What we know:
Blueprint: H1 4-18, H2 20-28, H3 30-35, H4 41-64, H5 70-85, H6 87-92, H7 100-127
Amino acid sequence: xxxxxxxxxxxxxxxxxxxxxxxxxxxxxxxxxxxxxxxxxxxxxxxxxxxxxxxxxxxxxxxxxxxxxxxxxxxxxxxxxxxxxxxxxxxxxxxxxxxxxxxxxxxxxxxxxxxxxxxxxxxxxxxx
Length: 128
């Protein structure tokens, strides 16, 4: 699993880079985003940045987590993939964040990433 994290991280960076085109539209042609239903441009920016940050995080964890159990790395990976995706529906309708389904998915993703990263730190500290 550890060897897979940098690869997933690179794909996350690639998606983040591609989402830069949406950022160009936010700045230069926001009316195009409105045509496809995107009302909240700030969420496009958040998605773009989060894809990049999560990609860097996955690469870093994959390179250093030599003594971390695979299940912990799965938690980190799930959180790092789901967190950026959670901004996408908010770009269309921010009221979605008030629904139980969204709040549950958001909470589980946050806990998955947070608990996973703490567990990585503990595992690596013990191994050190």
